# Entry
Amino acid sequence: MYTRYTFHGLGRDNPMRLTTYTDYSLRLLMYLAAEPGRRATIADIASAYGISENHLTKVAHGLGREGWLCTVRGQGGGLELAVPAAQIRIGQVVRRSEGGDLPAACFGDKPVDCNIAPACQLRGVLAEAVEAFYAALDRHTLADLVRQPRALTRLLAITSPPSQRARSAPAAQP
# Structure
């Protein structure tokens, strides 16, 4: 299943497809990065985005295996970033979550029967495009995606637990 993103530029639409798994991976990481140090449950995140808890659970498991996410069990438990958002490169997340899909069959390790392979230039052109795509993503971190944390927390209806609100509230002036 793919999520279609449309980018507007140069007067025309430029559709791009990422898997739903990648989309959910980025959403989950952004949710947690919007309020560092706060734990969230799968239910919190799924509700904020209106997406499936079952799918999000699989995504969280994969992000945990990659070392970007950790889970805390029990009372007050949930998900949290395992590393600072500034250390998570978007290109890495997309590469790992896309699972190495190739833009054409001729990109694989095994030769593909193709009548035009000896003269075809498509493989080189697509390799250049894929390299440029990931190079652009590698220039950005998760922290770059959450530069407006207040706006994100408001849009996602993220509320701090009472214990965190008390710590972050300004001291009363006499």
